[in-house]
Target: Phage integrase family protein
Amino acid sequence: MPVSPIERPVSALRQRMLEDMAMRGLRSATQRDYIRFVQSFAAFLRRPPDTATAEDIRRFQVHQHESGVQPPTINCSVSALRFFFTVTLDRPDLSRRLVLARSPRKLPDVLSVDEVGRLLEAAPGIKYKAILGTAYGAGLRVSEVASLKVDDIDSTRMLIRVEQGKGRKDRNAMLSPQLLALLRLWWTEGKRRGVMLPHGWLFPGRSAADPVSTRQINRAVHEAAEAAGIRKRVSPHTLRHSFATHLLEQDVDIRVIQVLLGHSKLDTTALYARVATKTIRSVTSPLERLASLMEGKASTG
Model:
């Protein structure tokens, strides 16, 4: 007779934190991450996390730094612990002891238009060609591409409906005629394979009832980059970076790009101005104007 696994009871403290997160509408993935970071803190303390002191928090963050934990991970743990102390424990005094780690802001890797074309051509099949085409053609995040439903494609208004993107915000993304044609090719092929369900996922995974995973998309991007002979570090997000940079180089207003990307702050979008090489090359250096001025003086002297 098979023995059913024994489920570990959820502690009252953990249950309270789960309820606090659910009330505030945190995503299930965020809830899992927050619980995991609090568990990591408790493991460091070797006692319940609600018994922590200000010195415990300091020791934990010193331990993270000395262990080589990267700034993004440290900052995620800060967010989790701040929620735990401020909301669940009502101890904002402890929350203020947490220090964010400074992370060097690197310029994003961007593909040229030619490289994007080669990458799409090398994609493994029409499904992934359409997936990568959507990431680039609409500037979507990989999670947003994976979560698209068939009904999110509005060919009448030439829009893509992005539901509950980053920050739990809905927005409209652009749908170009070229992307629509590519998606229709995939739709026809998907119907032939019997994987396109009515009102179902635009890009089904191994089962038609489930969406393609971000891991599958990542693997397809890496395979396509290798096949295309692209030596840059390429990920699905590289296509989003390239979308924004190429629009900026086409003189699209940066505030329009901000809306298309779903950025809350213009500062985030402004980063692309630092990698838009065509835009940089089009600017006349003041040294050139100085040289022209000096030549003019020499000719009249």
